[in-house]
Amino acid sequence: MAQKIKTVLISQPKPSTEKSPYFDLADRQKLTIDFRPFIHVEGMDAQEFRQQRIDLAEHTAVILTSRLAVDHYFRMAKEMRFEVPDTMKYFCISESTAYYLQKYVQYRKRKIFHGTIKFDEVVALMKKHKSEKFLLPCSDLLKDSIPNALNDGGFKYSRAVMYRTVCSDLSDLSDVKYDVLVFFSPSGIESLFKNFPDFEQGKTRIAVFGPTTAKAAEAAGLRIDINAPTAKAPSMTMALEQYITG
Questions:
Q1: Helix 186-195 crosses helix 211-219 at what angle (to 10 degrees)?
Q2: Cβ atoms 156, 134 nearer than 8 A
Q3: 126: domain CATH number?
Q4: pLDDT value, residue 2
Q5: Rounded to two decimals, what is the model's pTM?
Q6: Which of 14, 138, 204, 210 could disulfide-link 35, Cβ–Cβ 3.0 to 4.6 Å?
Q7: Which domain holds residue 187?
Q8: CB 181 within 8 Å of CB 204
Q9: CA separation for the pair 181, 13 (Å, rounded)
């Protein structure tokens, strides 16, 4: 059964570089791999944001967990006519997020701190600046671990929802059948059933990445055929290849 896989739909945007492991996998296994985001991000407008009663000017530091957070923080500041002061401190999840700030500020002249992807590293940096009032620009789907870490650390912070994750319109896919559908978040599973309420899995294989995605798939009544990450398959491409060749 596994040998018959010819078509795969990845529920994410197409990689921007030709060096993606998905393209290598398609070549090796003679697959057709298509990419289509099942979810996308929409920014809140200033009027909606005001309902949270958060004053940007009250905060002396910003916690930035992604490039999206950077974009939406400065977008909202502009919409609210708030001029971000040069004294603002930035605590970034990674070096690449920190460098991304150059799009909006003079990097060398700002107080910018960063970890290496782990949020507890950001928390450790913040502990040296405990007197600051922090702003956390985020989406409506924020991992509990982030506010939990901030609460445990006793920081003064505001959780500022500036953008939300919404289901994409997939109606043009209604007649398209794939051997494997690949999901990376519970929101992707939600989007599948929002777009196709009568979806029946049948012989379609479902691949999921991460325990929360697996839990959402099972709750939706889907049969999970391919699971990642595992010890033998830390990436989705490896999990797919092992399933196909197995």
A1: 30
A2: yes
A3: 3.40.50.10090
A4: 47
A5: 0.75
A6: 14
A7: 2-38+170-245
A8: yes
A9: 14
In the chain, alpha helices (H): 21-29, 46-50, 67-79, 95-100, 119-126, 145-152, 186-195, 211-219, 236-245
Query: Mean pLDDT per 10-residue run, the chain (246 residues)?
Result: 79 88 93 94 93 95 93 96 93 91 83 86 92 94 87 93 92 86 94 91 94 94 95 94 91
Residues 57, 157: one domain? yes
Assess whether 152 and 85 both reside in one domain.
yes
Q: C-alpha angle 69/55/47, rounded to 5°?
A: 75
Q: What interhelical angle do 21-29 and 236-245 show, nearest 10?
A: 10
What's the token pair of residue 194?
């929002």
Q: How many domains does the chain have?
A: 2
CA 187 to CA 165: how far, in whole Å?
8
Q: Are 50 and 145 contained in the same domain?
A: yes
What whole-number distance in Å separates Cα of residue 148 and Cα of residue 143? Answer: 9
